[in-house]
Write a structure and sequence with these properties.
With 297 residues, the chain is α/β, with parallel strands linked by helices. It has helices at 2-8, 11-20, 26-38, 41-46, 53-68, 85-101, 138-145, 156-165, 183-190, 221-232, 244-247, 255-258, and strands at residues 73-79, 104-111, 150-153, 173-178, 200-208, 236-239, 259-264. Strand 1 (73-79), helix 6 (85-101) and strand 2 (104-111) form a beta-alpha-beta unit. The protein is globular, with a radius of gyration of 21 Å. Bound molecules: S-adenosylmethionine. Residues 80-82, 85-86, 110-112, 115-117, 134, 155-156, 179-182, 185, 188 line the site of S-adenosylmethionine.
Amino acid sequence: MAYLLKRLSEGRIWRKLYRERFSEPIHLNVISFFVFLFGSFRKKVDYDLVLRPQQAFAILSAADRAKEQGFSRVSILEFGVANGAGLMNMIEIANKVTKATGVEIDIYGFDTGEGMPEPVDYRDHPEYYNVGDFPMNKELLKRSIEGKAKLIFGTIDTSLPKFIESLNEQAPIGFVSIDVDYYSSTTQVLDLFKTNAKNFLPLTYVYFDDIFMPHHNKKCGELLAIDEFNNEMKYRELSHHTFFINERLFKNAHWIKQLYYLHVLDHPHRFETIRDRKAYVLDNPYLDFEGNKKQFD
Ligand SMILES: C[S@@+](CC[C@H](N)C(=O)[O-])C[C@H]1O[C@@H](n2cnc3c(N)ncnc32)[C@H](O)[C@@H]1O
């Protein structure tokens, strides 16, 4: 609550609220007020009332999907932790998601611990970032998250291979938040998505933080890394769900365009042919009989 109040004291936050929230239909903002006061956690996620709504949506959806697949644990990762505001928010959300779904959540954060490394070239957007930007208050953060999330230090190319070896298929990765700013760092993160299909949920949520500023484009930064990944990988695809915006109540929210889906096309789940159920029968309102399936959901 104290953090929320601090954020609300920033002019930038009010400008964002004005553009993304108060420009939406008035009835939704009125209903939001009551959801904020009396709504369940799930309802608050629907109404974008949780701090960093992208994390709330993705962590809750990952837990729901894990449960559908018969898992009781799921892993979520943040690449680029800095002083830990995002990671600590993930911890808070994960507690609420566990209460709502019963699914346990393992949380990992990756960072150099010393801020941004040296950029490689123009593709890393040196016009935006400096070496050493976003350092971490290491000891304080480690103490604050002890037992709640694991911090993994080092540049991602050195820390990731060991982490991949330690992955547990019984706690597949369901959400990855990527906030490492550079093209070169993002390509290192995306190597994770080239590993064993069972390391992931068949549909894993991926948030890209650094694709929204005026200089961002498909020949640099995270957008270039995504394109190269998709071109290289035959059975993996990082893409937008085109109709996702139609499913959200607040359509002006930035994060809708920053949330990607990792489709793991070689996941065993994509090969299952379900034969142990009755055939779906569709209704026809013009004929006098009732099917067993009203619509595909
Ligand atoms: C913008 S900050 C992250 C902010 C954080 N997500 C938050 O919500 O407060 C970017 C972070 O990415 C980290 N980073 C960038 N490239 C990296 C790399 N190759 N290996 C490890 N960390 C990296 C930097 O150390 C920096 O702390």
